[in-house]
Amino acid sequence: MNFYHQLSAPSPVSEGLSPARVSRCTLQGRTVYLKTIPKLFAPTTYSVRREGAVMAWLQGKLRVPQVIECGETGDSEYLIMTELTGQHIDCLMDSPEDYVTQLARAIRAVQAVDIRSCPFVSNLDTRLRELSYLLENGLADTDPAHWQQSTAFSSPQALYRWLVENRPAEDPVFSHGDISANFFIENGEPCFYDLARMGVADRWADIALALRDIREVCPALEPLFFEKLGIAPDPQKIDYYILLDELF
Ligand SMILES: Nc1ncnc2c1ncn2[C@@H]1O[C@H](COP(=O)(O)OP(=O)(O)O)[C@@H](O)[C@H]1O
Ligand SMILES: [Mg+2]
Description:
By secondary structure, the chain is α+β, with helices and mostly antiparallel strands. Helix content is 34%, strand content 21%. It has two domains: 4-82, Phosphorylase Kinase, domain 1 (2-Layer Sandwich), CATH 3.30.200; 87-245, Aminoglycoside phosphotransferase (APH), C-terminal lobe (Aminoglycoside 3'-phosphotransferase, Chain: A, domain 2, Alpha-Beta Complex). It contains seven helices and ten strands. Adenosine-5'-diphosphate binds at residues 13, 15-16, 18, 20, 22, 33, 35, 65, 81, 83-84, 182, 193-194.
């Protein structure tokens, strides 16, 4: 808790649907980010302790923040990290070709990380096990208003059962887990944050979530995305990984 008690001038960063809280703070005169999450999420890929461990492991492998301190306070886990700068990927939505190109580059950079000594696993065993925990503890995002229009299940449990019964075979690569809005571009290189779900997972996990955004922003550029990735679309896996994300 050395640095935690020295943080000052916290200003909350606008929150999305995630259960984590993020603030921009000052520490010894420089800007840092504090991320906290209730300890109930400790056994899941929302854990900011997990995020800190992934961040430390990725130093020298991908551009990510540095861990300043990771620990527990009261009912929460916390992570203090350095600030990333650059142009946020979402700022490129007005130039859709650049947007799609940078998303594909970011995915290629993540998938180029060597997984042979990677201790972090985010595969379907892990994700379905944690989804069961999240559902049992009322922590899953079960609001159908947050689902894609094409997601037609009568209940979160029905969707969970479908995911368990329709698991596709996995092609393991390093994966971000929540890639679409979670990186900056600096000097042409992607710099990633929101790393809690990173680990070894199927090649299509990141591609599907990036594609979900491309379909909203510039659907006509779907073919360009696959051209930049150098891969042909796999519609079944795309659908599966978009559905898997619905309850997170
Ligand atoms: N290290 C960082 N450097 C710069 N901005 C950050 C950093 N960490 C978080 N942010 C900002 O805070 C926001 C929320 O952080 P994120 O880790 O994505 O939390 P969540 O899990 O709620 O999505 C990000 O969209 C980004 O704008
Ligand atoms: Mg985020």
